[in-house]
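Deliverable D5.2: sample structural annotation.
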Amino acid sequence: MTATLLNAALSLAASGVAVLPLRAGKGPFGNCRTCARNVCGGRPNMKTPGPCACTYPCHAWAAATTDPQTINSPQWATAWRTAAAVAYHPGGAGVTVVDLDNAAAIAWARATLPVTRTLATTRGEHWIYQGAMQSVNAVRLGVDIKSLMAYARWLGPGTGATAALPAVVRALAVKEPSTDRRAPRAPMAPTRGQSGACPHRTPAYLDRGLAMAVQRITDAGSAVHATVYRTFLAVLSTHGRCGCLTDTHVTRLFTAAQAKGETVRHCTDAWTNARTALGL
């Protein structure tokens, strides 16, 4: 498996597609100790070298490279030995991937988007368009856009001709401006007793859960939007109905998300969407 993945990565790199290894679970390899928590300064993009000169596949999508010496290096060999897949940087290759995660999303794409090159995934399909754009997760239920500053699994060449990136896909990344010019406030947490007595034995249970949630957001190396939403969803599914959460707890989560580059509005939207998904 290692040789197969390495050969695929080298072949892609030779064609000008920047690649990186993925671990089991489709996630990137974590930063090395020197780069942990981006203390090295990170690598901001693929075209302008950043302050980090690490030779390990650090910093998720920003580690993607077309350099065969790097891909074959001893530092990368450590990752290849346990890698489960090859990923690539769509934006760097000049393409956009519309990632459809379920049958409903595929049906929407077939009814809405121009026909283009497609690939089957574990749960759905990738629709590939020629042209790069901003990457955005969860533009609608089951639909992510992966292009600039993102990675996608390499699943093969796909079938069909690659169409030009249409305006309808670009429009998915555009949020409607708020009519309220004031900064959005964090949604109020549920009041105690919303659904009866709290089932948790001690306050330490909530404190430990909040600490783990904050750490999960802080450690996100990529797909920050999705990580924030899923973390909010997990917190609310455990503590959202009993009334444990207070504004102080919500602020801790929002602060962690904003430290990763999320805006207050993105945090508010993610929190609201998570509550809606759980029927809160």
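Annotation notes: Residues 176-186, 188-196 have pLDDT under 50 and may be disordered. The first strand starts at residue 19 and ends at 22.
The annotation will be released with the project's public dataset once the embargo ends.
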